[in-house]
Amino acid sequence: MRVKLLRHAALFLVASAIAACGAPQVRDTNAAVDANPQCVSQPSQPGEPVAAECERKTETTWSSDDSKSSEPIDFGKKH
Questions:
Q1: Are residues 30 and 7 in contact, defined by beta-carbon separation less than 8 angstroms?
Q2: Considering only Cβ atoms within 10 Å of each terminal Cβ, which end of the chain, N or C, has fewer?
Q3: Domain residue ranges of the chain, discontinuous segments joined by +
Q4: Sign of dihedral through CA atoms 16, 17, 18, 24?
């Protein structure tokens, strides 16, 4: 039982450390399209063009904070 608790604690610490390295950003245009009165009448046939501001998109990007980056670490150096 104690080994299981320690394993869960270790996994939590590793997951927390990895999550601190970057963060996903999700961008969804559905709410903006719904609020735009120009997008009320959508094309009824497949393949008909849709205005760029009425196109529904969901995108995800992963980024890390580059402001904290430093010089690359050289692991080949021997002291």
A1: no
A2: C
A3: 2-43+50-64
A4: positive
